[in-house]
Amino acid sequence: MVTVNMHEAKTHLSRLVEKAAKGESFVIAKAGKPMVKVVPLEMSERVAKSRIGFMEGAYEVPDNFKEIGRAEIEEMFGLND
Fold this sequence. Notes:
The chain is α+β, with helices and mostly antiparallel strands. Helices cover about 30% and strands about 20% of the residues. It is elongated, with a radius of gyration of 28 Å.
């Protein structure tokens, strides 16, 4: 496993991240002392799950949805005159 110093990691971060994403882990050291290990994420962690439509079919919106509570709201704001 390759060890790179902090300065080199900052300078070549994009290149190092690309290598890590392809499976080439590396260690970042500060003053020669290993600090962190960079490893690729598992494929399942990389792919963001889609949330659009995740509750499809879980509930029904009544046809009169916009009318529910209308009388009470109009009364509260004095709109029923």
